[in-house]
């Protein structure tokens, strides 16, 4: 109860400071801190909170979940959606919770935020965990489009849809949106054989309070591309630099996450090292739900 009211206090304190940052904590503040950084732009932490945050805390971690400025429950009409703005909000969390170091757990686009933050502030990060995290964006877009061209090699209507996206400006919000929409329509983000456990997690989430606050800011990607110059990057050089600086890097990915090629996965594994990499069977993009037990077990093994 005390931690609940403490979380509420910090939520309101962020609003009072004009940052409009939703934030909630789970577990004992004396334990190792994990900050979860959600996907996007336009995402939020509701799925992670509604399924996994408390279970991760139960393993002996102090888990902080938040929605980036202007995304999800962190309403802000003046948000810029830049990496630098995301860094400012992370630094505010460090200051508010008196954190010297924390583990950053970055999912999807949140992996890019976590990587670039760690590169800039390595002294603040005790470990970097990339969970289904983006890293070589153009390779991901190329892989999605090439996989679909192979799948629809004799379907002129589908090939026309793919061609329209392929010919867009590769540094535009429209190109990114087109690639991911095609991926979503073709099941790239879904596990092939949902388990009873994953079905229950998704069903409970959709029936619960967190799903009711699953707010998506459709303007976020557009504004991000207007304001952020680093909008189509390969973060592997940053990861190599981070590793050489002594910050441990861990990668956990689903074997059925359709947005990554095998070459990409192998390149990530080469950076993290085999002992710091997990490749989960029957698992797609939302691996903390698709294979939650394996996800939690790996994090506990690596980080405890």
From TrEMBL:
Domain AB hydrolase-1 intervals: 33-290
Keyword field: Hydrolase, Signal
Classification via Pfam families: Abhydrolase_1
TM segment ranges: none
One example GO MF annotation: hydrolase activity
Signal peptide range in chain numbering: 1-18
InterPro entries (UniProt xref): AB_hydrolase_1, AB_hydrolase_fold, AB_hydrolase_sf, Peptidase_S33
Keyword set includes Hydrolase: yes
Family: Belongs to the peptidase S33 family.
Official protein name in the record: Alpha/beta hydrolase
């Amino acid at each position: 109860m005390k931690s609940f009211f403490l979380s509420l206090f910090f939520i309101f304190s962020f609003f009072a400071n004009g940052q409009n940052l939703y934030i909630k904590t789970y577990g004992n503040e004396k334990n190792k801190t994990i900050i979860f950084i959600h996907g996007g732009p336009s995402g939020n932490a509701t799925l992670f909170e509604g399924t996994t945050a408390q279970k991760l805390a139960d393993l002996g971690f102090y888990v902080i979940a938040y929605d980036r400025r202007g995304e999800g429950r962190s309403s802000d009409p003046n948000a810029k959606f830049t990496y630098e703005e995301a860094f400012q909000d992370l630094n505010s969390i460090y200051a508010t919770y008196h954190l010297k170091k924390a583990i950053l757990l970055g999912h999807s686009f949140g992996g890019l935020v976590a990587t670039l933050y760690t590169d800039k502030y390595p002294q603040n990060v005790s470990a970097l965990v990339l969970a289904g995290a983006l890293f070589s964006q153009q390779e991901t877009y190329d892989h999605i489009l090439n996989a679909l061209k192979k799948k629809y090699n004799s379907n002129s209507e589908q090939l026309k849809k793919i061609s329209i996206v392929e010919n867009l400006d590769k540094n535009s919000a429209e190109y990114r949106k087109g690639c991911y929409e095609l991926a979503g329509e073709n099941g790239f983000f879904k596990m092939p054989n949902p388990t009873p456990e994953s079905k229950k997690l998704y069903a409970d989430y959709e029936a619960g309070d967190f799903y009711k606050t699953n707010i998506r800011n459709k303007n976020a990607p557009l504004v991000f591309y207007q304001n952020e110059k680093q909008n189509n990057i390969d973060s592997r050089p940053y990861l190599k630099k981070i590793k050489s600086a002594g910050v441990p890097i861990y990668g956990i990915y689903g074997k059925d996450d359709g947005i990554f090629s095998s070459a990409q996965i192998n390149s990530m594994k080469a950076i993290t090292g085999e002992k710091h990499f997990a490749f989960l069977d029957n698992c797609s993009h939302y691996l903390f739900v698709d294979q939650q037990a394996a996800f939690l077990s790996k994090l506990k093994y690596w980080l405890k």
